[in-house]
């Protein structure tokens, strides 16, 4: 019944033309023998790159995507259902190995298996990092990847909608038009439903000397600010790669897509002194026959932070020792492939508000009825759109001493056993860059997300580094995923100080203290660094921002791709997805991945 209502709802919206397009999905028999560009993965980044390259009518483009198109289900496009798609057929359903420093726990790590990838699965937060987050990429040797370089690409993909006047006045939502794009394919707008308890949170932070920024999209994603969702305000549905890029691209005759096909190998050949990609091997499923397609100009790997390094490894591009252990002949020895895994983990501080006068929230059924009837209510919002990203020295007096402890550590002491010399050097350089930038007030260290009393905390620049390793050459077998949360003990120290500051804020800011907050987890008995570390080890989990496993930085310091996103040692192979990020930025990474993909498309087309 809900599906029928939603279909009728969409027919009455301006999205109907996009949703009514017939995708140019081809069968294996319709496939050409060769394409100029073969994109491995039609997800968040791959879908963007493929669509942009196809705008050049002289270029033939094939996208090979393991997943299907979503069917406009609630779990895919209704904001109030954001996240419900995890664990379904649209998810690879990856699981980590037991993590040594996180209570020997294995946790689920969602990774989208659907056209549009993470843009279908994420929580719709549409913010950017601070300028310093991206300038740090330049510091690592990546020319052209600083804030000013990326800003045009942040704007290129965005179709910004200013907040409704009544909402803006009630909640103090402000913006700077110059920071936004107004004709891109991805809608960015503010849900008409907001949490009234956001107001005491803002006022409480202000009373503690933390200002509200005019617009976090202007390079100052710091302190407290409002940010839009990836939300089409006309239909009140998710704005993502499928309607924004993929479906329009299917109208182009030079754009082909093979869905439900998984790439099993990047086939290379030595031509003179160069190694080139000649073919891409793929299959419809376990045990099915493998097929190949020839690459005319370039192959572009966009299989995500987990899938991309695993594919390179089983193709002989990665650590030679790993390739040999898999029975694969090494093609290029790149120790950085699968290293440097970073993620925003999070920890909740749960509070009862004993003196709140807010009415109980509507039931799920009531929210659904309001959404379908009026496009209003809680289901128009995927989650909080008010964020607080605090610089290090804002929330702890220990910032300088913690940074000194970072610098004093042996670079290899807390990395995975057997990390190569190159990877260790890269980590050392990253610590050097971070200690310099985090000592200022221009880079955030901890995110605080207020959820009506309880607060989500997430350290934005963890020192712990995880790994991705192929378990076999079978792409349908789970890879070995180790986030290695807490492997650097200073990460738990940062989180402990983050909780201590929050406790003090809730008790000393008049607007927050008036709500009568009482903490019930971790609980007031958790006080020492050791107690906090034990608590975090048993509860910390992923915020779904997996990245950095094919880092863009010089090869001599563990880099996998250069600043043109070309894989070192292979003439016509690039990686374009969250795996190329060298240092995770202090933000939810959706908009950053769009910007990376837009810039990559320009680099590819200009280079050819």
Structure description:
The chain is of the alpha/beta class. It has a single domain, classed as Glucose Oxidase, domain 3. The chain has 20 helices and 24 strands. The strands form 7 sheets. Strands 1, 2, 10, 11, 12, 13 and 24 form a 7-stranded mixed beta sheet that branches. Strands 7, 16, 17, 18, 19, 22 and 23 form a 7-stranded antiparallel beta sheet that branches. Strands 3-4 form a two-stranded antiparallel ribbon. β11 (262-271) and β12 (274-283) form a beta hairpin. α3 (44-54) packs parallel to α10 (241-249), α3 runs parallel beside α20 and α15 packs antiparallel against α16. The longest helix is centred in the last third of the chain and has 19 residues, at 490-508. The protein is globular and about 70 Å long. The N and C termini lie far apart (50 Å). Keywords: FAD, Flavoprotein. FAD binds at residues 114, 263. Residues 112-135, 304-318 form the Glucose-methanol-choline oxidoreductase N-terminal domain.
